[in-house]
Structures are given as structure tokens and as C-alpha cells.
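Q: Got a minute? One more chain.
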Amino acid sequence: MLELKFDSSSFTRKLRGIQISAIPEAQKKSLYKFGFLNKKKLAVHMQKVFRNPVSFTLNSPLYKVYDENSMAFFIRSNAPKGNKPSKYLAPVEYLTGGVKESYETKFSYWLRNYSGLPALNNKYAIPAMDSSAVQKNQYGNMKASQYSAVKSGLERFATGAKKAKGNQYRYFAVPSKVGKSSSRISVSSKLGHGIYRVKGNTLGLLFTLSNKKPKVKQKFQFRGITAKHLNQKMNNIFTIELRKQLAQFK
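A: Always. Here it is, folded:
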């Protein structure tokens, strides 16, 4: 969260009498106006630094005006489905300009802790976006429906099932067992670590598996863009709003 305060005293020293009563309302309207404009500014910034960000991410910066003197900007922390923007944007927020460990998605957390495949407890799944087996949505990310299919397929695989229902894909992971026998799939010894789907003679890689949590570059200048925009625009916004309020006394 980024809290901001606005001091208009340098603009209002010459006001007298009833005109002074216009200041609080002008300040409050200025903060709302700045919040609206800065939200759009941050969305433009995200489009520049992220690859095909989804609308939910672009709309995740929010603001709240406390009173005529202060407001705060923050990232949405609730999500009806999927991952929370406040969680997955935190590692990429620009603080030092270095790199940080990426946010672990719900799927990755489930895979390590609840998939029933102990060999994956310390593995991090990374979508194999260059694989033709990956189904992409309009933003170039793996479709949510495919995540669900993989999860269901691995749950079935973890029970020891060797066949898929009907003409569906069969899913498996390499490795999937702890010990000398590293997998339930006979061909897995020839495959790299990952999550695969297979139907007939068609084999496709869906995820690679890493022993280390992926790292991401800090590039979302949430605080820097807001502070810069405040210095550039707030004085002008307040001047316009103050004139509107003073006009009511004429």
C-alpha cells in the first residue's frame, strides 16, 4: 500500500473569508481525480513492462480517499477465481531493481502439497509455453481449463490408474515416485522431468519441473510511477478543482 498526503497551503494563502471553505472540497475532489487518472497511468505502464497482461491485472491497482488530505493506492487482494493480484504482483514490484522469487501459483502449490505425488514435493511447475500441447488463451497463457484437466489427470495418475476414460488424454509426471523406481510410466526414463499428456502415440510436454523456485525481475514501478505522476499533475488538478469551487461563491 502507498499512502499519499496533499498539502495545498502554498496555493491557498491568499484566500480569505468564505473562500477558505472551498478548500476541503477542492482537495477531496482533487484526490479522487488524481486516483482515477493514476489508475489509468499504471495500466499503461503495466502494458509496457508485462507481456499481454490480462484485464484483471490491468484493473488491479485501486485507490481509496480517506479525507481531503490523504489517500492510498493498493493492489487488489481478492480474486473470485485464480490468483490474487496483490500476491503475484508483489515479487515484480520495483524496489531495488534486482530479482526476487516469483509468486507460487495455486496450481504449483497444489502440485507440491496435495497432488499425492511425493516426488514433486520440491518441484516447481513451469508451463512449457513453446510446446504445441499447451492450449493458450487470448493473452498467450495456458487456459484455465487445461490447468483443470492436468490436475484431474494427475489425481487419477496418483491413484495408480494406467488408462484414461474413453478417448481422453492420460497425464503423468516425471518423476512421480520416490526411490529407485522414479516413475510409473515405462518410457519416463527417456524423458526429462516434467508433466506430460499422452493419447495413443501422441506425447506432449505441458510443464517443465524445476528444483528451484523461479525468479522474476522487479519491473512494476507502482510507487515510482505514482510519485512521479503526483508531482507532475496534482498541482494543476487542484488548481482546476479549486476554481470550480470558488466559482460557486460568485
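A: The chain has a mean pLDDT of 87.
Q: Perfect, thanks.
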